[in-house]
Amino acid sequence: MFIVNVEGAIHRNGKWLLIRRSHKEEHAGGMLSLVGGKCELEGNSIDILERTLQREVFEEVGLEVKELTYVNSSSFVTDSGVNVIDVVFFCHQASGEAYAKSSDEVDEVLWLSTSEILSHQGIPEYLKVNITLAHQTIDNSMNLKGGCK
After folding, report:
1. CB contact set of 14 (below 8 Å; sequence gap of 6+)
2. What are phi and psi of 141, to 5 degrees?
């Protein structure tokens, strides 16, 4: 059995939104990460991943996001032995200003460039991979727009 987790790679003005997870969090407390959270049981539903991400981003940092684009998925096992499927989406900010809205989940919000993230010694490798893949989403979008002129 898996927990399904979703994360948002939110990009604005050349920087990515990262959070420092609250030290109260059971998994990865105090670590830098993308914003997100786990899906709740809903029975039969559609767009559960997208709706979960929109809810979690708003609850944790007060932003509304739109135009979610799949980036990648992975699995991992938490320190307590829980199996997790993690799905990352590239998101456009629709409204709001990011702040540590949920102190139980977020200690701090940071906006860092791709190069700052990739060179940061305290950022886990999986997050660097997710940012690299999300950055490619931006590059691909720019190429498509350039080709339409």
Report:
1. 113
2. -65, -40
Q: What is the pLDDT along the chain (149 residues), one digit of tens a residue?
A: 899 999 999 999 999 999 998 766 666 657 899 999 999 988 898 999 999 999 999 999 999 999 999 999 999 998 889 999 999 999 999 999 999 998 888 999 999 999 999 999 989 999 999 999 999 988 776 666 665 43
Q: Which two tokens stand for residue 77?
A: 């096992």
How do the domains of the chain map onto residue ranges?
A: 3-147
CATH superfamily of 3-147: Nucleoside Triphosphate Pyrophosphohydrolase (3.90.79.10)
Distance CA 59, CA 71 (A): 22
d(C-alpha 100, C-alpha 81), whole Å:
28
Model's pTM, two decimal places?
Answer: 0.88
